[in-house]
Amino acid sequence: MAKQEIKSANLSSTFSFSDKWETLLENKEFIKVFLSDVLENYIVKQRWYGGKASRMKYIELAEYFRIQQHDEVYYGLILEVNFTEAFYQHYFLPIAFVSDDSFAQDDRILPISIQDQEGFIIDAINLEAFRKLVFQRLLTAVAKDKTRVRYHKSELFKDCQYENSRFMGLEQSNTSIVYNEKYVLKFFRRIYSDRNPDYEMSKFLSEKKDFKNTPAYLGSIQIKDIEGTNITIGLMQEMVENQGDAWQYMLSELHKVFCNLEYKNIDIKSLPKTVDFGQLQIQDVPAQIIDWVGLNIFTKIQTLAMRTAEMHIALGSEFEETAFAPTHFNEDYTVWLKNRLLYQFQNRLNTIENSLHKLDGLALELANEFLEKKNIIRRRFVNFDWTKLKGERIRVHGDYHLGQVLIKGDDFYILDFEGEPESTIRDRKVKQPPLKDVAGLFRSFHYAIYATIFNNMETYTHSQEDLFEAAEVLYQYLKGVFLGVYTIKVQEANLNIGYEQERIFLLKYAMLEKAVYELGYELNSRPRWAIIPLKGISNIINN
Ligand SMILES: Nc1ncnc2c1ncn2[C@@H]1O[C@H](COP(=O)(O)OP(=O)(O)O)[C@@H](O)[C@H]1O
Ligand SMILES: O=P(O)(O)O[C@H]1O[C@H](CO)[C@@H](O[C@H]2O[C@H](CO)[C@@H](O)[C@H](O)[C@H]2O)[C@H](O)[C@H]1O
C-alpha cells in the first residue's frame, strides 16, 4: 500500500497488504503505519496504559516475537513508548488477525485486509483460541526451554486440560485471565528489561519456601530479548477462592466502627490512648476501646500480622540464592536511599505546586503546610544513619497495602509482588528493612480510616475534628495490635528487625516515605484522594 494512501486513511477504512500474516511484521511500511497511525491512538485509551500523566512523543517497536503452536501464529509486540519528558516505557501487546468480526467485538486495533482477506488486528488476549494456545504451551513446557519465548511450569501444573477461560474483569494494571475457574494467568502489560519481581517472589515464596498464604506458582512466560535479558510477560498462579480484598473488608468494618460512635454514645475525649508503636495483645486493649470497636477487627489484624511475619520469615530465610539472602545496612544502601528519596521529594514539591489549583478546603491547607515544612521533611530523609542500625534487610513485598491482600474465610492471601509502579525495576529488587512493608500496611490502615470518614462525613453526626480525634486513637490501637503479634513472631524466628528505637525510627521513616510516594500517586491519578496522604504527612511531621 502506498504511503500517501495510508497517511490519509483512518480506522474506519481498511488497510490492505499483500503479505501473508506470518510475514506481515517484516513489512516496514506496515510497522510504520501500525505504530504511528494506529497504536498511538489505541494505547492511550487502554486501562493498562500507565503513561496517561505524560505526553507521548512516539512509539517504536522494540521487539516482536511469535507466540505459536504448529501453524497457529500470533505476535507478541514489545512497544517502546517515548515521552516528551525524556523517558520511555515498554508495553507488551499480543496481536491476532481475525477475519470473522464476531471475534473482534472488543479491543479492535485495526481493520485490515491481508492478501485480500478482510479482517481485524485485535488484542489477542480477547481471542479464546489464543488463550487456549498459551495454556497448552504452558502445560507442555519442557524443563530447559532454550527458545526465545520460554514457557516454564511448576510440578503442580499437570494432569489438566484446557476447559474455558475468561477475563478476571477486576480493576488492575495488568490483564489477568482465569482458566478453568482454577488458574490465573497474569499478562504483564508494562514490562521491564528484567525478570519481573512478581514472578521471582511468587516462585521463591511458594515453590522454594512453601509459603502457603500466597497463590501457588504454576508457571511463567519469559522472552529472551536481543541482548539476552529475560523479560517476564506472564505469570500463572493457582486461583484463590476469596470473599474480596482486605481493603473493601476494612472499609465496611470501619464504617460500623464510626457509626458506633453515635449508636454507643462514645465519649471521644475520654477514649484512652496508647503508646504509639507499642506492642499490644488483645487483652491489653482497654475495655472502653473494645466496647467501641469490637473484637473482630483486632483478631483480623492479628491474623494479618501473623501472615505478614511468616512472609518476611520466609523471605529472610535464604542463604544460597544471593538475590534473596539477607544483608545489613551499609553506606551504599544509605546513599541509594537518600538520593532516591530526595529526588522523589523534589518531584512531589513540583507536582504539588502545579496542583494547588486542584485542591481546596482542608486539602489545600495541608498542601500549603507541606510546602512550608519542606525543609523539616527533607531533613527527616537525610537523617538516616546506617551505623546505628543493626537489623537485616531482605527482599520485601514493596507495595504492600490492604488492596493486595485477599480474604479467604478467616485467613489472608498476599498478592502482587511487582513493587511500586513508579520505581525502576532495579530499585524494586533492592533489599529493604521488612518494616518497610509494615509501614506500607500501616499507611493503608490510615487510608482506610480516613477514606471511611471522608466517604461518610454526611452520615456521621460528629464534627470533623472529633472524627479525626477518634481516628487517631483507633489507628494507634490497630498498629499496636499488629506489632504485638508481628514483632514477637519474627523475633522468635530470629529475623533481626532491629532494637526497639531502631524499629520505631524505621517505621516512621518508611511511613513518611510511603506517604510522600502516595501524594504523587494520588495527585497524578485521583486528586480528590490527595487529602489522605497529606493528612498522613501532617500527622507524621507534627508528632
Ligand atoms: N491468584 C489469584 N486468585 C484470586 N484472585 C486473584 C489472583 N490473582 C489476582 N487476583 C485478583 O485480581 C486482582 C488484581 O491482581 P493483581 O495481581 O493485583 O494485578 P495487577 O498487578 O494488574 O494490579 C486482585 O486484587 C485479586 O482480586
Ligand atoms: O495496587 P497497585 O500496585 O496498583 O498500587 C498503586 O495503587 C494503589 C491504589 O489502588 C495505591 O494505594 C494507595 O491507596 C490504597 C487505597 O486505594 C491504600 O490502601 C494504600 O495504602 C495507598 O498506598 C498504591 O500506593 C499504588 O502503588
What features would you describe in this structure?
Strands 1, 2, 3, 4, 5, 6 and 11 form a 7-stranded mixed sheet that branches. Strands 7-12-13-10-9-8 form a 6-stranded antiparallel sheet. It starts with a helix and ends with a helix. The chain is built from 15 helices and 17 strands. Helix content is 43%, strand content 19%. The chain has 4 domains: 122 residues, no CATH class; 109 residues, Phosphorylase Kinase, domain 1, CATH 3.30.200; 188 residues, Aminoglycoside 3'-phosphotransferase, Chain: A, domain 2; 95 residues, no CATH class. The N terminus is likely disordered. The longest helix has 29 residues. α7 crosses α13. The protein is α+β, with helices and mostly antiparallel strands and 543 residues long. It binds adenosine-5'-diphosphate (ADP) and ligand LMANGFYV. Ligand LMANGFYV binds next to α12 and α14.
Q: Into which percent range does the helicity of residues fall?
A: 40-55%
Major sheet attributes: 7 strands, mixed
The CATH homologous superfamily of the largest domain is termed Aminoglycoside phosphotransferase (APH), C-terminal lobe
The count of domains is: 4
Computed structural class: alpha+beta
The first-level CATH class name of the largest domain = Alpha Beta
Mean pLDDT figure: 93
Ligands bound, unique: adenosine-5'-diphosphate, ligand LMANGFYV
Helical stretch tally: 15
Strand content: 15-25%
> Which value, in Å, is the CA radius of gyration?
25 Å
Distance between the termini: 68 Å
**Assembly level:** single chain
> How many β-strand runs?
17
Shape: globular
Please name the CATH architecture of the largest domain.
Answer: Alpha-Beta Complex
Query: Could you say what the CATH topology of the largest domain is called?
Result: Aminoglycoside 3'-phosphotransferase, Chain: A, domain 2
* Unreliable runs: 1-13
